[in-house]
Amino acid sequence: MNQALIDQAIEYMKRQRFGEALPLLRRAIDQDPSLWNAWYMAGQCCRFLEDLDGAIEHLSRAAELKKDEAPIFLALGIAFQLRAQWGQAIESFRRAIEIDPDYELAYNSLALTQKKQGDLDEAFHNYDAGAKALARQIVKAMRNNRNSPILKHRETVGTLWAEYATYAALYLVSTADGISDIAWPTGAQALEEERTEKHAGLYWTDVPNDKRETVRLFLPNYFNTFRESLRRDIAYSNLLGNRGTVLELLGHLDEARQHFDEATEFRP
User: Fold this and answer.
1) How many helices (H) and strands (E) does the chain have?
2) What is the DSSP letter of 148?
3) CA–CA separation, 240 vs 247, rounded Å?
4) Complete DSSP assignment for the chain
5) Radius of gyration of the chain measured on its C-alpha atoms
6) Whether the predicted model's global pTM rises above the 0.90 cut
7) Are 17 and 41 within 8 A, CB to CB?
8) pLDDT at 141 over 90
């Protein structure tokens, strides 16, 4: 019975019929108060129905029942943020990040709260941390296979994405055993690789150096695939645009414009 109520509520929520979903979730909770997911969804319904007290009540209970579910703490933080309860919001977002260090949405919400408080330096840092979290997600999902799609070079307005691609490559190598260094092809080598497709769909290859150490060489397909992964996800554009707003508030207008231009180009 409970699962049927929850399934029906989910269908209503998918259609944004939150007022119809909420009574079903409350019935499920009455039947089994230990259902953390019902408390969570009820809290989300309350939030979208602009009942912030109800959202905080239900989401707080969900967080008590399920202490390791990052989306609960993100949702709770947003409810606190909407109530201008900045301290509780920040605490919730930090808990979400503690549970999932790659949760870019939590970094974005944390930075937004800090910006609203006027803590611009911290907001700047956390928008960047959110983009790095997204970069880690992308590189950890890559499967280095010759059969991967081969993507080609494309000119871009900005180059911030390449900095995040480089960061992600360094992160990946830091978690790998037996890799002593990192390298990328020269411009001429990249053009030759794209022409010949010698390494097919590989993102990287491990090669020995003159000291008989193993070096990981990141290939053009890595950078091209990373770039297009950012293009497919609105998160990167949002993080970049939000960081640009903070730079503008800090008076760094040229750097802000660079962020705004790249955010526009990378918007899906």
Assistant:
1) 13, 3
2) S
3) 10
4) -HHHHHHHHHHHHHTT-HHHHHHHHHHHHHH-TT-HHHHHHHHHHHHHTT-HHHHHHHHHHHHHH-TT-HHHHHHHHHHHHHTT-HHHHHHHHHHHHHH-TT-HHHHHHHHHHHHHHT-HHHHHHHHHHHHHHHHHHHHHH----TTS--PPP---S--HHHHHHHHHHHHHHHTSSS--EEE---HHHHHHHHHH-TTTT-SEEEEE-TTS-EEEEEPHHHHHHHHHHHHT-HHHHHHHHHHHHHHHHTT-HHHHHHHHHHHHHT--
5) 22
6) yes
7) no
8) yes
What is the token pair recorded at 187? 């411009």
| Calpha distance 13→19 (Å, rounded) | 9
Rounded CA-CA distance 260/254 in Å is: 10
Q: How confident is the model over 88-132, as pLDDT tens digits?
A: 999 999 999 999 999 999 999 999 999 999 999 999 999 999 999
Read off the amino acid at residue 173: V
146-190 residue pLDDT tens: 999 999 999 999 999 999 999 999 999 999 888 988 999 999 999
